[in-house]
Design brief:
The protein is built from one helix and six strands, in the order αββββββ. It is mostly beta strands.
């Protein structure tokens, strides 16, 4: 075994943010950030979300639709490359309360 893995390391070293059902979280980041790590999980309920990466004012956004039956047993983890300026990530919890 090569260690805890990137998802567990991310969970252990960052403060989680709760995004309630129907809520949106948006955050910009600096141009020198080359990639971001995103981990989504739940307290055992189904995980249903949409991740959007907006890159500059004139580019199409990249969208990922995420669903799994149990977000505690099977959290979602992704590394997204973010070249260029004007990057914003938006996470939408598309599940209901």
């Amino acid at each position: 075994n090569g260690g805890p893995g990137p998802a567990r390391a991310l969970a252990a070293n960052t403060k989680p943010r709760t995004i309630q059902g129907g809520a949106v979280f948006t955050t910009p980041f600096a141009p020198n950030v080359k990639s971001i790590q995103i981990m989504l999980n739940t307290d055992g309920r189904p995980l249903q979300a949409r991740l959007e990466l907006l890159q500059g004012p004139n580019n199409n956004k990249q969208v990922m639709e995420v669903y799994c039956e149990d977000g505690m047993d099977r959290p979602f983890f992704v590394v997204v490359e973010t070249p260029g300026d004007g990057n914003v990530v938006r996470i939408v919890n598309t599940a209901t309360l």
